[in-house]
Each structure stands twice: as structure tokens, then as C-alpha cells.
Amino acid sequence: MTNEFRKTSRTKRAKKGPNPQDSFDCRADVCGPMRRYDGGMHALEALSASTVVVVDTADLALISRWKAREATTNPSLILKAARDARSGALLQRAQASPASSAEERMDRLLVAFGVEILQRVPGRVSTEVDARLSFDTQATLQRARALMALYAAQGVPRERVLIKIASTWEGIAAARVLQQEGIACNLTLLFNFEQARACAHAQVQLISPFVGRITDWHKQQSGPGWDDAALSGPNDPGVQSLLRIWRYYKQQGVRTEVMGASFRNIDQIAALAGCDLLTLAPPLLEALAGSDRPMPRQLDPAQPGDVQDAMPPAIDEAEFRAGLQADRMASDKLAEGVRLFAADTEALLQLLS
User: Fold this and answer.
1) Per residue, what are the HEC states of 14-67?
2) Which residues have a catalytic role annotated?
3) Residue 80: helix, strand or coil by DSSP?
4) Does the model's pTM come out above 0.85?
5) Domains and CATH numbers, the chain
6) pLDDT tens column, 174-193
7) Cα dist. 253→191, 210, 248, 319 in Å?
8) What is residue 164's three-state secondary structure?
9) Average pLDDT of the chain?
């Protein structure tokens, strides 16, 4: 099956035209009219000219519709898809598998979704390790390796899978080892600069700063004093956090990819046009496809702009924990994110019990 997956990837690239970096097949029969009646581009096509746009869902029908280059999943998205009657066959196969535990059945279900997704995208899929293990390096390593073994048994090449791990100190330590073993990692639930430095030092493949959740926290803390107009676009706290990290990575020559995640509106997306990757939920893809808003490149690796941080990526555990503790937003949102993903993991296990 390895050859089948590689062939699928090459075939879909061939259909996409001369630029292999395009993240969408922008044919009118796929995404709707890609050009306005006056010949202009809609916002999704314009954004795809400077950024790899990734679809953030486990809904196979939506992935097929959007013809994304890559896809991201998480426990919440898998749970939602598993509860959908259209995914009944995948759930039943996992329930009936000769696994020794509910956790093993869950891993089989995660990989089953991943395999289906990879038949619909030419690039990579992100599959998340059990969030309940976010503070256990050895357990994270064990489960990540188990997931990759399941993918390998289905003939999926390693380069087509990103293992998602929470950006805790323990998670980043696990990712460092996995990267050395040739297992590429996507470090998720990333909310501050210390997490990004640690990920750079670990030489992980990709990080996912959570733009929208950062802004959510600041908006909640501000209460009635929040000014949507003044704090949108480039002034948005989540946008500014990602931009600081992205500029630092480019200035330091860090090869880790930056993929913005958790977006709330088109203003945030437009302000980060040119970022390495952006993963977007289907409703935002719909909004972009229906908009004629210009999406000029805002982030240019050749001219990253002023960098406010000059320290090297190397960071030890004490500095990491001190930086996280001093940043109430990051510590709050990281704890909340792990807690919510762990709860959805428990719910998924109930489906499989």
C-alpha cells in the first residue's frame, strides 16, 4: 500500500498545476467559482498564493470537497466525526478490532481516519497522541511509536504523518526524541514564546500557535473595555504572538514550520498571509471562498521585519517553566487545552468500550 499512497500524492500534485506549493485545487467544479465575474480572485485563492492552507477537520466529505493539500485533526474533531453516522464503518471496525485495550482501539480509529484522509489529500495528516499523556514523556513516546507502527502497517510513508503533541516541557522532550527517530512532530497548544523557543531547540518539524485562543483570553480579560476595531488584524494579540515567533524563527534560521491555528475571523487570517501554513476550519474556508477581499502577502521570509528577540533557541526546563508561569494567558490556555482534549479523549474511549 506504500506505493498506492505515494502514487496518490503524485497524481494529485499533477492535477494541481505547475506550483506544488499550492494548497488547493482551485477548479470551479471543486471550490465553486474561483474567479469573480470581473476576473478577480476570491480570498481563498489569493491566500493560497502565499500560504499553504490546511483544512482543520476529520469530516471526510468536507476534506474531499475542499481538496486541501494537508489536514489536521485533534481529539475533539475525531470525536465529532466518530459520532457521525457517515463514519459508522470506521467506528465499527475499531470496536471489533482484536485490540487489548480501549486505548489501542482508539489508536486504531485515529489511524483509520488518518488513512482515509490521506486518500483525499496529497500531503500530510496530523494525528494527535492521547492528550492525557501530555505531562509524561515516556508514555507519549510509546503511544507515538504505536501510532506510527499502525500507519506503517497500512503502507503509509512516515513523511505523510505528523504526530501531534501538546507543547508541554514533557511533550517537547518526547518530540525531540521522535524527531531523531525520523518521526515528524506537530507541537500543538502553543501559546507563548518560551514554548516556541523550546520547540526550535528540539528541532521539531512544525508548531501550531493558537491564534484565536490567545485572543479569546485577552478579550475575556478585557471585558467591556475590549475594542474590536482597535484590536483586530495586525493589532490582534493572537496575531502579534504568532508574528513574534515567526520573525524570530526566520531571523535565527530555525527550520521548524509555523502553522497558525485556531482562527476566529478573516481579519486574523489576512494579517498572517504569507505564514508557512494556516490550518482553517471549514466555515472559514467557506467565508474566504465567498469573499473578494484582497489577501496580499503580509509575511515575507526574505524580509521578516524587526525582530524583538535576539537570544538563541536553547532553553532549559527552569527557564521554560518560569516563562510559562509568568505568562498567565499561556499557562491558563495550555492547562485548559489539555483538559478539554483529555475530556474528549475520554468520551471517544467510551464510544469504543
Assistant:
1) HHCCCCCCCCECCCHHHHCCCECCCCCECHHHHHHCCCEEEEECCCHHHHHHHC
2) 164
3) helix
4) yes
5) 2-352 (3.20.20.70)
6) 999 999 999 999 999 999 99
7) 21, 22, 8, 22
8) strand
9) 90
